[in-house]
Design brief:
0% strand; 65% helix
């Protein structure tokens, strides 16, 4: 049975993982009057779920599977050397290729930095919350891993399966943008919540697709099988947003 309490903890926007400082691209759109209303937000989220949402969900699902495999085979070294922690040395087995795959699927350097910053914040929380799990601990060996990988490893430590991990990724993507739109445009939060509920069937379809792709990619050991769906405008706007002198959100 899934550790429901851990899963809910990771889904909570109050978790100290840095998500509250990211708008998911909404601030850049609002600043340029490209997003001005609830219908605009719904159209934006629809497109993001199908592209960035699919990519993030697949990477998160992969990380959940990799972390679960680390538990199955155990990476503990019974002969710790100098500098090793109390539960054995930190190893990064299997993570490098997946981290590079997320990197190349994020063309904007600003978004890569945002992903690594948020991943680092969540990793600090996850290694304290689940210190005995090898998933988050081994990811720490990468230094600053991408956020979807940390979310997947943390969700595995919390007892979630790949589908639940992927759903978490989409949940955070939608929630960050929706919350930012409420703050920036003064949208009715009740109507925004209703719009999010209306997008739930699409989210579920994307999650199912992401899990299928992730399962095949992990079975083949091939990061190139991960989806690379994207649209260019959010990437361009992310760079412009990063260069702006004053922003409410980090991305």
């Amino acid at each position: 049975m899934t550790g429901l309490s851990g899963l809910l903890l990771l889904a909570d926007s109050r978790l100290p993982a840095g998500g509250h400082v990211h708008s998911g691209g909404v601030e850049a759109l609002v600043d340029r009057r490209l997003l001005r209303s609830l219908p605009d937000l719904v159209s934006f989220l629809d497109a993001r779920i199908r592209t960035a949402g699919l990519c993030a969900a697949a990477a998160t699902s992969v990380a959940n599977l990799v972390a679960a495999n680390l538990v199955a085979v155990s990476i503990r070294d019974d002969r710790p050397g100098p500098g090793d922690g109390p539960t054995g040395p930190i190893r990064t087995d299997g993570w490098h290729g997946w981290d590079r795959a997320v990197d190349v699927r994020t063309p904007s350097s600003a978004l890569r930095e945002a992903s690594r910053a948020q991943g680092s914040a969540l990793l600090r929380t996850a290694t304290l919350a689940w210190p005995g799990h090898p998933g988050p601990r081994s990811l720490a060996g990468l230094g600053r891993p991408h956020y979807p990988l940390v979310l997947g490893a943390a969700s595995a430590a919390a007892g979630a399966d790949p589908g639940q991990s992927a759903a978490l990724a989409v949940h955070h993507l939608v929630g960050a943008s929706a919350g930012a739109a409420v703050r920036l445009l003064g949208l009715d939060p009740l109507r925004v919540a209703a719009a999010q509920a209306g997008l739930a069937p699409l989210c579920d379809r994307v999650v199912a697709e992401a899990v299928g792709v992730a399962t095949r990619a992990v079975a083949a050991g091939d990061p190139d099988l991960l989806p690379a769906d994207a649209t260019s405008l959010p990437e361009i706007l992310a760079e412009l947003h990063h260069a702006a002198e004053v922003n409410l959100f980090a991305s």
